[in-house]
């Protein structure tokens, strides 16, 4: 028998990712919000997972699993398992086979799930499939493998420190900042479109500086391809993202594919106007000419034109940013936690 009472519920999260990107941030945000509600939790993760460091202040059991076959008999029984990424789905399926524990999975990427035997088996065995955006929801419903609901990702409330913000303001004095944050993987985040836009706007907006935060496999090539530009800099990885958001005049997000684009929620939270690609889950967050400007995907010219529009009309940017902030109530960690908690209880009740 499994618990349906929140005070006795034990949720086992599984995230076997090596790094710390958007999905891991969302795992952390959810676990923190559930901890505030007194939910007992454990986490299955790699022995070198950054989540161990990020969650070190929480009273949770950590179970080491460097692959899907490990950790299945550690930590006692949980009432249900929540798989947060692809490898975690396989772990959760094995746990159900071995110990009978029901599981749900959160799908964060916009590509349709491949119709392979293992995918069919692991998705059909889940009690529920959670999509973080409308495009992912439609893909999952089209498969018809298990019940589907949508629970969007949450903003992270990225803090800023006044001294660090002032130092950045001094460093970029006299420049208007077009910011970008994302892993330097062009096939995903589209940084080559930023290079194209920076090149197009270089002469007409000499005071504008593109500031790109992140690291990734394309870093060397992107730097080489933009070496002739004096209006674009690659800042590398920084954990004080909130400080940088405070000095941005607008934010450019030309992703080629995007499950949702949760960084956009934090951009909105800091009051920065957005220009983003109209692709996959991004329109769930950015409503064209209401909470930002959307441009066609894969179009550097359209990206540059939209950036120029906001640079020429700061009042429009301020209005878009103000309207965007009003949309954030449905994208908070509390809202996400309440939605998942209701789902956990329903799954547990169904499995009594």
Characterization of this structure:
The chain is α/β, with parallel strands linked by helices and 352 residues long. Helices cover 40% and strands 17% of the residues. The protein has 14 helices and 13 strands. The protein has helices at 22-36, 50-54, 86-99, 117-124, 134-143, 162-171, 186-189, 191-201, 219-225, 241-247, 263-269, 300-312, 314-325, 333-350; strands spanning 10-15, 40-45, 61-64, 80-83, 103-107, 128-131, 148-150, 176-181, 208-213, 232-236, 250-253, 274-277, 293-295. The strands form two sheets. The chain has a seven-stranded parallel β-sheet with strand order 3-2-1-4-5-6-7, sandwiched between helices. A six-stranded parallel β-sheet has the order 10-9-8-11-12-13, with helices on both faces. Helix 4 (117-124) links the parallel strand 5 and strand 6. Helix 6 crosses helix 10 and helix 8 packs across helix 12 (300-312). The longest helix has 18 residues, at 333-350. The radius of gyration is 21 Å and the shape is elongated. The mean pLDDT is 96.
